[in-house]
Amino acid sequence: MHIVGTFWSLVPAIVAIGLALCTKEVYSSLFIGIVIGGIFYAVDAAAGFTGFLTHVFNEGFIANIADSYNIGILIFMVILGTLVALMNKGGGSAAFGNWAKTHIKSKFGAQVATIILGILIFIDDYFNCLTVGSVMKPVTDKYGVSKEKLAYLIDATAAPVCIIAPISSWAAAVAGFVTEGENGIALFCKAIPFNFYAILTLIMMFAMVKMKFEFGSMKVFEKSAEAKETSETETDSNNSSNGKVIDLVLPVVGLIILCVLGMIYSGGFFSSDSDSYLNFIDAFSNSDASVGLVIGSTGALILTIIYFVSRKVLTFKESMACLPDGFKAMVPAILILCMAWTLKGMTDSLGAKQYVADLVAGSAAGLKAFLPAIIFVIACFLAFATGTSWGTFGILIPICIAAFPEGAIRIVSISACMAGAVCGDHCSPISDTTIMASAGAQCNHVNHVSTQLPYAITVAAVSFVTYIITGITMNLGLAVSGIISWVTGVALLLATLSVLKKKNI
């Protein structure tokens, strides 16, 4: 039975996703998907039971978890969990919650503040997910915003913002997939106006907060949270009562600054080996997000401990006790992330990338007007099944560049690829960004996925129609096509939300 490079290569991920959504239990679902991937690989290679064990454990779990990039992300998560524990223990989170009572007056304000903070932290999606959650959770809890809605707001302002920000780890990743000597950042910037899914997602969030309604299973969780809304922000009696707002603001600001410095350092900005310093954009293009975030977060952790101890908010011993607390808080997310990486390794070994690449290359002929919409759907499917938008970029962007050497169709197709990858990543329960959004909001992961899906699918459907309109109007020029597409897309989205509100689904 031939499996590698065929549709069967996507089956392990599809089974894992389906089981997770049906059983509401993600650990066993991911493990079953990994086992199926191992069985398929052993059958195709005629490797027997020994080959199955080797592929699942040696080449699967151990190899993927031991990957240097993945290890860096795990370290970053543990350090960020420790910082959150320090801010909670030092009373900074409680002080911020008390401050928010006098400045953020309503549920509307809490949600808008969360969205704006998510937009402002555009450097990296991992950093966005965990930082926004830790800062805004006391406020959203106070005003009856459910953990599920907070997780959606975090997730919808993580990847969608990063993919339209020229200075971000995502821009650097996309630029890295652009070969043939072209300026990747310049091409990325040209594609931003046609990234309909990312921008429409941001418009939808503001629109729904303003319209004050929810639909799908999110409505149930929101009603439950409103019923539990308390007049006081919950605090732990073991936390310091000497905390001030600055005890939360200073560590977060320091973390942002140091992570930016860490990323450009990893990109060679401060290198003395070169004849001249790299400029800021080039440094971001060359950066290693994993290394940069570890350097930045480690520096922020050290400075935060020094700050708390010197201010006598916490003793050194109490600060050190936050290390295991931070690790414990991140264990569920780390476990899911490690299994998701292993599952992705299984699909890669089965040739999923080549299968999808051949599928895209074979569907291009004679469908120029519909090509952006087709690329969007294929990117959605691939990112959803594999849980990686960056992997989707790596597969599809080189194909788009090779198929369309120049012209409007090239820019729009690359935009469709990026938008579809973010959409699929946004929907997938095995996406690392989705997993960390759940961790940031302290939300059950499957609940986050099931409540987010109807929202993401709504924007995806509108984006699909918008890409069809773009493909049809491209011969009028990019500017005219963009205006027609945006007017139609925004009008369709607002009309859809109005109908959903009226029906109160």
Portion in beta strands: under 5%
Q: What's the overall geometry? A: globular
Largest β-sheet summary: none
Please identify the structural class as seen in this structure: mainly alpha
Mean pLDDT: 83
Note the gap between the termini: 46 Å
Radius of gyration, rounded?
Answer: 23 Å
- Reading the helices and strands in chain order gives HHHHHHHHHHHHHHHHHHHHHHHH
How many helices does DSSP assign?
24
Percent helix among the residues? over 70%
Q: Low-confidence spans: pLDDT under 50, at least 5 residues?
A: 231-235
The total count of strands amounts to: 0
Explain what the structure shows:
Helix 1 (11-23) runs antiparallel to helix 2 (26-45), helix 2 crosses helix 3 (48-65) and helix 10 (169-177) packs parallel to helix 20. This protein is an all-alpha fold and 505 residues long. It has helices at 11-23, 26-45, 48-65, 68-89, 92-103, 107-120, 125-142, 147-156, 159-162, 169-177, 184-191, 196-211, 218-227, 246-266, 280-285, 289-310, 316-349, 352-363, 371-386, 389-403, 408-427, 432-441, 445-473, 478-503. Helix content is 76%, strand content 0%. The model is unreliable at 231-235 (pLDDT under 50). The protein is globular and about 65 Å long. It starts with 10 loop residues before the first helix and ends with a helix. It has 24 helices and no strands.
